[in-house]
Structures are given as C-alpha cells and as structure tokens.
Amino acid sequence: MFQTYTEALEWIHGRLRLGMKPGLTRMEWMMDKLGNPENLVKSVHIGGTNGKGSTLTFLRSIYEAAGYTVGTFTSPYIESFNERISVNGQPVSDEDIVKLANRIKPLADELDQSELGGPTEFEIITAMAFVYFGETEGIDVAIFEVGLGGRFDSTNILKPMVSVITNIGLDHVAILGDTYEEIAFEKAGIIKEGIPVITGTLQPGALKVLEEQADQKGSSLLRLGKEITILDHEKAKRGERFSLVTPFGFLGKLEVSMIGEHQTANASLAVATAQQLNQDGLMKADDTAIRKGLKEAFWPGRLEIVSENPMIILDGAHNTEGIQALVEELSARFSNDKVRIIFAALKDKPLGSMIKTLEEASSSLTFVSFDFPRAASAKELVALGNNPFNLAADDWRRAITDEIGKLRDGEVLVITGSLYFISEARRYLLEKII
What we know:
The protein is α/β, with parallel strands linked by helices.
C-alpha cells in the first residue's frame, strides 16, 4: 500500500513502460470488480482531434454557473498531475490520489498476472477518475475527455447523456489511420445507441463517417455549420464575441475570454450540449448561466497571454490544425508585429507541415529539446526546416530567457508545440521570469 503521494505517483507513471494498449477489456474487468462506479454519475463524453479540453472547460463553466458541482477528467495536465481529476476546476488532493491508487493497485497486480495483461498508465488514471466521480457525494455531472481516438479509448466504457466530437484532423496517424475517414471512424466509436451526438467536424469525408455512424446507432446529430450556426463573429480585446443559432433558439452577443476564432466553435458545441440536455430534462442551464459560463471559462496554455509587457503567448498547438489556428490568430491580432517563435514537439506528429507553417508566420524560429520519451530533439526539428536562419537549442529554459531578453517594442514571443512542453514552459515562466 502507498503511504505517500510520491510513492503513488511513481507507481502510476511507472506504468508508462507498458505503452499504449488500445482496448476496453481491462477497463471493463476493473470496473466490474469495483461495482461499475462509472455508471453512478451523470456524464458527458468529449472526443475529437482539437478543442476537447476547451469544449470541456466551456461546458464545465456553464454548469458551474448554473449551480452544479462538476467533475472533469482531462489529459494531459498543464500545472499539476492532480488536475486531470478535478471538481469545479480544483484538482483532487494528494491524499485522494493516494487513496485512489491504493484502490486500483490490487486490481492492477492481479491483471499483471493474467492473460489480459497489466493496465497502462492511462487506464490506471481513468479507473481512478471513475471511482472518484462515482463514489464521491455531491458531484452532479462528470465530463470526460477522450485520451486517444475513441473506439478503444479507456474512457469509452461510459454510457453518457450526450457524446461530443469536436473536429477531425490528421493526428496520431500511426495508430488511428492516415485518412480523415479512418480517423473519423475511430472517433465515432464513442457514439452510443440512441445517445445524442454533437460535432464540430467540418471536413466532408470525416463528417460523412460520423453521419453514417450516428444513423446506424439511431442517434440524433447536431452539426456545426448546419444545425449549429455561428453569426456576427468579432474580436474582443481579450477574447471573442459572436451570436449563435441552434435548433433550441438564438443567443446573441455571446462573449468568451479565450482567444481564437476556433474558440467560438468550441464554445458553440458546449452551448448546444447544454441546450440538448436541457431539452432532454437531464440537466438545467438557462441563458444566464450559459452567458456567464462562457465569459468566465479559462483553460491554460491555449493562446494564453501570460505577459503583455513584453508580449508573451503560450499555445499548445501540437498538430497541423492547431498550428494553423495559431498562425491565423497571430495574423489577425498581431499583423503589424514581428513574431518570434519557440517550438518543441513530439516525434509522431506531422512535423514537416507544422514547421513550414511556422516558418511562414515567424520572424525568427527557435527549436528546442525537452525531456519526454517521444520528444523530437532540437537538432531533429531544425533539420526539417527550410530557413537557414532557424535556431536549435537543447536548453529550452535558456532559450526562453534569451528570447525574452531580445524582445523589443512591436515584437511578440510565442512559445508553442507539445502540451507536455507547454506544461513545463508555463511553470518556468510564471515562477522564474514573469
């Protein structure tokens, strides 16, 4: 049995050695042994390529504004491991992590000796979340973010009130498939019989797959750009303004504090989800709660302005679509400024296209290494670029400090790439520099 938080965390992270093992059998076995806590709380299930965390945050904030106590399960974390399992935005305590790990470890030990094989790190953490939300009194709803894909993701034993699929992009192609349609099929695996589905997917081939899967499951489908329409979008100083039409009515002059036009899409999915559950009589969030929730929602590391003087922005743009959204926003907000970029990424991303887009948007581009098993080195990244003036730095902390020292009026520093890197960089910035 674990006595300390450090012991529990070391055991959990030690399961990384098992890698990724798609499939639901181990999760089903553990939940059966625990009395199926995943069925003891109302839930919403959110998948997709980009925008899962932001959509979850908007929906959580809406329900908090409506007076509910909301559990959330997210990955990866930005500030602390515990935030992956949170209630009303507050991470569970170290003591809770120890208790939960002690609940799961005997089952993991038993699985280690079975033909099913031992559970992975993500399966362990997912099981902990199910237990916490299912057995903790006072939690009204739990919102779960898919870890990878959907069909075989550990969270997919849920029986949610509604399923949300944000969008479909070409990410994790070695695991999910290398076409939009193949990836969409994996994401569509979270669609359950007769359970409503809401999606922000715009890519035609991917959308067709979702439509087919929803039809086969007898699930209603609300689509961004069709049943869900964004109107009158405009930039606010620190966020976005827009109006929204859904099958449930019209909401004018909504405002979000998260930056980026793509956040209007994520917010719209959250609003449509809340409205769907209103109609189904499963939850209740009126227009006042929706407006307040959208305005107050905050998700760190997503086009986050961490300093205005000098101007420093953090953004976890970790795939092609994320990089494109970042560049579009920089063009819209900082068209007259020089943009200096620091970038780190994992090896299994479409790095060539990501780097090409960054080169076109930046006045200087520095690649950095960081300590993570699948991270690309600065040397590997700079070799993929086409600009001879690109820089490579093994010490990302020194690179950030140096770049801040170089900033002049009319220049912006953007630190972007893997969310695992952004987590470390954000902590360093807030503690050491800003």
